[in-house]
Automatic annotation (TrEMBL), chain A:
Similarity annotation: Belongs to the bacterial solute-binding protein 1 family.
Protein name from the UniProt record: Carbohydrate ABC transporter substrate-binding protein (CUT1 family)
Species for this entry: Lentzea atacamensis
TM ranges: 21-41
The entry's keywords: Membrane, Signal, Transmembrane, Transmembrane helix, Transport
PANTHER family registered for this protein in UniProt: MALTOSE-BINDING PERIPLASMIC PROTEIN, MALTOSE_MALTODEXTRIN-BINDING PERIPLASMIC PROTEIN
Classification via InterPro entries: SBP
Automatic annotation (TrEMBL), chain B:
Source organism: Lentzea atacamensis
Protein name as it appears in the record: von Willebrand factor type A domain-containing protein
Domain of life (superkingdom): Bacteria
Transmembrane annotation, as ranges: 12-30, 42-60, 72-92
Keyword field contains Transmembrane helix: yes
Length: 441, 600
């Protein structure tokens, strides 16, 4: 207790207790000065720096991957903006198709000292990295009502809103109608239906039950996460802790590893080298009963389902995946260095407005980020899978939110590849490597 | 005693304490005003902070008292200050850096963009990953650089650098490179000269070659065992021998690919150019049933990764062969919006690392032969290659002055490109795109652009297909560029899509390859076949029989994958491209450039 007394004795002396006012006047004066300075600052100085609300004039540069919508609907929207706002024209600088290449160029440009970009069109998994590196300006004073919950969540990092969702995506389960009576709810049901169909030998073209994207690229991360989630396993929990080492995770990986084996396998062995396009081709060729893919392939398949060129007609249906899907899509964010943040914000709000979202979905096929679009009857006739997709998006999950996402994805894929080759077992130190990756190591 | 002390030193700490309290009060008010003290936790934190501030005032007072007891206190004070400053200066940066890593994770690595060729991309990718790990070794496990390695088809990378990386290059090739690692030093010289001029936005600092890989003839293992001999043989002798077995011999376009150019140059020394050009076909991929002119590292990787057992292919090393020699050039951009200054230091570091023992081992493991290290364990017969080389030439490539003459001889000897283009004129082509033009308009504009790629002796013919007819509109053999656009402007698209019929008709019209011509068919369609009497299988068999390469460009509702258009193009040795209305012109032009052999 003596140290306590000593600290107390050593407290700053604001004057001996006897002489009350004279020596405590320092305290009073200090308080008074503080109060006056604060009032001066909040009322006199701050307003000088308060931003004006007028949009800055000049060209807005949007950095984005290639327009993948049908017939260039994104371009059409930008043209419309330019016609309505000739003093704030927007220009899209198109980057290569490959997402990694887009990211690389965006990061390099963001590092420049001069302002060279106003709006980034970011993949959902990049928000954390760009925000943490200080490349983005927080979005303030925007109305976020009406956006779907999940896509909007992907725009936030550490409680701050950095972007607005431009378009969204969720994986769907495509299946052949003639073989499947009810939508499968679990991986086990996919296995049962597949083996039954393969054994019955109804269709000589059938080579396996299920096709996914298991080539070594981001598609493998997405597909493996979804399988693990379908078995109610986890890789990284909500608090950011790595929990990959569990029975449920192992079960999902074993399902995949075992599925790929055998004479009539559950999982199509070629899908280890498949990307989205090749899966679609395998499904159209009648090689599988089920396929996991993005909804954009629904249009492709629907356009070609008629019997032709020696291939019988394809009757298919879509359902949500057995577990949650990994959320896809892109978000629009303002560059921290932009000299035109107010005009850029207006452009982002225009591109994510209900009308723009309706056009992008209805004519361009890019899934809307606003719930109301899915209620539209024209959208429903144009894209019959819209309701199912909405369900999948609402139920979708974000891939781990970390500024080091690409490191995480690299390490995770190495683990999954090992598991596929070793009956679903995890490599030694899997957990450690993921913990390191989440810290950028 | 204590009381006396206190009275004497009482004003200073009181003064300090008051000012601090004033600061705390002011700050408190402003924080409360802006609303950042919203939760109870923030109030607790604020309280602790203020307490520490006040406590530090007493610490100063204590110290003050202590100091007064020391003799020569100014000397001691200065000495302590100097020592403390030195300790802080030395220890603070690493301590802060480590603390930062522990608390916040690694700082983001610097982005470095590495452009290389498609052939060496996988190997350089492996080496880049090793370098990233190397940067982490002395940095608390944090990588300081991230290398994005990508490739450009053919010589498009060099062309894009010469044009200071236009917006089209950005869209089609990739991001602006910071490091350029081409196949051969001969590729760099001209680009360096062109970009060195005043006013160019790009500056290329030419670098040394870090590794090499000899140009070899890859042959299937069975054939290889028959033709291999113990005495050294030249390119000409090997080619003649392998061609004698009836095996087709593939080569990339010598104008766009370094290995093909180096091998062809050596071949022209011993064989007549025309003979060489008749014996080789254009092919880009290794295949189990043909020979291919390629680099050793491509073959080694193929055997290691896509070959179930034994070496699928083995390398024949002509004694007079040249080498791909991989120089590491640094690229610096002067435009203020794309300079990427931050990447320059790690790019230099990467180049320097490649010449260290660790770097050379990484190159070796990736299948490249470092300039100053002997070939590693990867180079063994199970992988179809040899560790020891006996090559005649010291230089990696012929001198630059030899290339204009080589190009002249190649242009004379090469077979002329003969292309039949068939365009979809079905009803769906009238659909409007975002710009207001119809798909057909976009296609016609693309054809006009593509025809600018025509070489001096190349020719073309053109047909359109709709309903159930295929209508030839320009006969084969035309060289007139404007004829196509003029004729097509009169076409009114309508009806169905007889794609199969159109391909079969085109294959017949263009005819098979002969001594003087290389033939190809390009079909542009926006939908699946709807009205042909022929099935896809008929088309596949026909193109296989005729040996004419078929290329398909799919736009709009058409899709290479879903329509299995690739089965037709694969059977013929061609390819199918999914295109959009935005990229149609570029895709078409790229295809014509490839087929007519133009080097841009």
């Amino acid at each position: 207790m003596r140290w306590l007394k000593r600290i107390w004795a050593a407290r700053p002396r604001l004057g001996p207790p006897g002489v009350v006012w004279a020596n405590r006047s320092w305290l009073a004066m200090g308080l008074a000065v503080g109060v006056v300075l604060t009032i001066l600052f909040t009322n006199g100085v701050q307003p000088l720096f308060r931003e004006s609300t007028e949009w800055e004039k000049g060209k807005l540069i949007v950095l984005s991957g290639r327009d993948q919508s049908d017939d260039g609907q994104r371009r059409a929207l930008i043209n419309q903006w330019n016609a309505e706002h000739p003093e704030h024209p927007a220009e899209i600088v198109e980057l290569p198709l490959e997402a990694d290449g887009q990211r690389s160029e965006m990061i390099a440009r963001a590092e420049e000292r001069v302002p060279n970009v106003d709006v980034f069109n970011l993949d959902v998994t990049w928000t954390a990295e760009f925000a943490q590196s200080g490349h983005l300006r927080p979005l303030e004073g925007v109305d976020t009502s009406g956006f779907l919950r999940r896509p909007l969540e992907s725009c936030r990092y550490q409680g701050v809103l950095w972007a607005l969702p431009f378009n969204t995506d969720a994986g769907l389960l495509f299946y052949r109608k003639e073989f499947v009576r009810e939508e499968p709810l679990e991986l086990e049901e996919i296995t049962t239906v597949s083996t039954k169909t393969l054994r019955a030998q109804q269709d000589a073209r059938l080579a396996a039950g299920y096709a996914g994207q298991f080539a070594d690229y981001e598609g493998l991360t997405v597909n493996a996460l979804e399988l693990i989630w379908a078995e109610k396993g986890e890789v990284v929990d909500e608090t950011g802790k790595v929990v990959i080492d569990s029975d449920r995770t192992r079960r999902a990986l074993r399902w995949l590893a075992d599925g790929l084996k055998g004479d009539k396998p559950v999982v199509l062995p070629e899908s280890r080298s498949h990307t989205e396009l090749l899966s679609t081709q395998a499904f159209r060729d009648g090689k599988v009963v089920f396929m996991r893919n993005w909804p954009v392939n629904h249009r492709v398949l629907q356009g070609n389902q008629q019997e032709s060129a020696g291939r019988p007609r394809l009757d298919f249906e879509v359902a949500p995946l057995p577990g949650p899907s990994a959320l896809g899509g892109q978000n629009l964010a303002i560059s921290a260095k932009s000299a035109k943040p107010r005009a850029a914000k207006a452009l982002i709000e225009f591109l994510t407005s209900p009308r723009s979202q309706q056009l992008l979905f209805e004519r361009g096929g890019l899934a809307a980020t606003r719930g109301i679009v899915y209620q539209d009857s024209r959208v429903a006739t144009e894209h019959p899978y819209a309701r199912t997709l909405l369900r999948a998006i609402e139920n979708a999950r974000l891939r781990p939110v970390t500024p080091y996402y690409s490191r995480f994805s690299d390490e995770f894929r190495a683990i999954v590849r090992f598991a596929i080759d070793h009956d679903g077992e995890l490599p030694a130190g899997a957990e450690q490597s993921l913990i390191g990756a989440l810290q950028g190591r | 005693m204590e009381d006396v002390d206190q009275r004497r030193s009482s004003t200073a700490p009181r003064y300090a304490g008051a000012v601090m309290l004033a600061a705390v009060a002011g700050h408190l008010l402003s924080e409360a005003a802006t609303g950042s003290l919203a939760t109870w936790q923030s109030w607790v934190l604020y309280g602790i902070g203020a307490f520490l501030l006040v406590l530090s005032a007493s610490a100063i007072e204590q110290l003050n008292r202590l100091v007064k007891r020391i003799r020569l206190r100014w000397v001691v004070f200065t000495a302590v200050l100097v020592v403390a400053a030195a300790v802080i200066a030395l220890a603070a940066p690493p301590v802060i850096a480590y603390g930062r890593v522990l608390l916040l994770g690694c700082p983001q690595p610097t982005e470095v963009r590495v452009l290389t060729s498609a052939d060496v991309l996988p190997a350089i990718g492996d080496v880049a990953r090793r370098f990233e790990q190397h940067t982490a070794e002395r940095n608390h496990g944090c990588r300081t650089a991230r290398l994005y390695v990508y490739s450009a088809p053919g010589n498009l990378g060099a062309l894009a650098l010469r044009s200071s990386w236009s917006s089209q290059a950005l869209r089609e090739v990739g991001p602006h490179p910071d490091v350029w690692l081409p196949d051969s030093t001969t590729e760099t010289a001209e680009v360096v000269r062109r970009t060195g001029r005043v006013g160019s936005a790009v500056r290329i600092e030419q670098g040394e070659s870090v590794a090499f890989s000899p140009v070899v003839l890859a042959v299937p293992a069975a054939v290889g065992r028959d033709v291999v001999s113990s005495t050294p043989e030249k390119w000409g002798e090997l080619l003649t021998k392998v061609a004698g077995t009836g095996l087709p011999i593939g080569r990339q376009n010598p104008l766009t690919s370094a290995d093909a150019r180096l091998a062809t140059h050596a071949l022209y020394e011993t064989l007549e150019p025309a003979v060489v050009e008749r014996r080789v076909d254009e092919a880009t991929r290794l295949s189990p049933a043909s020979a291919q002119i390629t680099t050793e590292q491509v073959l080694l990787r193929h055997n290691k990764t896509s070959c179930p057992a034994e070496p699928c292919l083995i390398a024949l090393y002509p004694s007079d062969t040249y080498r791909a020699d991989y120089p590491v050039n640094l690229v610096e951009w002067d435009a203020p919006d794309t300079s990427n200054h931050a990447a320059r230091a790690p790019a230099r570091q990467f180049r320097a690392w490649l010449t260290t023992a660790e770097g050379m081992t990484a190159l070796n493991t990736a299948g490249l032969r470092p300039s100053r290290q002997t070939a590693g364990a990867e180079f063994r017969e199970e992988h179809g290659v040899q560790a020891g080389l006996a090559l005649d030439r010291d230089e990696a490539a012929p001198p630059e002055s030899a290339w204009p003459e080589f190009q002249r001889r190649y242009d004379q000897a090469k077979r002329d490109g003969r292309i039949w283009l068939t365009l979809d004129a079905s009803g769906s082509m009238t659909e409007q795109t975002a710009t207001g033009d119809t798909r057909f308009d976009v296609a016609v504009a693309g054809v006009r652009k593509a025809l600018t790629q025509m070489g001096a002796r190349d020719t073309y013919g053109l047909s359109v297909f709709s309903d159930n007819e295929v209508r030839p509109v320009i006969p084969l053999g035309r060289r007139d560029r404007d004829a196509a656009a003029a004729t097509l402007s009169a076409v009114r698209p309508s009806g169905g899509t007889p794609l199969h019929q159109a391909i079969l008709d085109s294959v017949d019209r263009v005819g098979a390859n002969d001594a003087g011509h290389i033939s190809a068919v390009i079909a542009l369609t926006d939908g699946e076949d709807t009205t042909s009497a022929h099935t896809r299988q008929d088309v596949v068999e026909a193109v296989r029989r005729k040996g004419v390469r078929v290329f398909v460009i799919a736009v709009g509702d058409a899709s290479c994958a879903a329509h299995a258009l690739t089965t037709i193009t694969d059977a013929s040795g061609g390819e199918c491209r999914d295109s959009t209305v935005d990229t149609l012109g570029d895709d078409l032009a790229g295809l014509f450039r490839k087929l007519w052999g133009g080097a841009g």
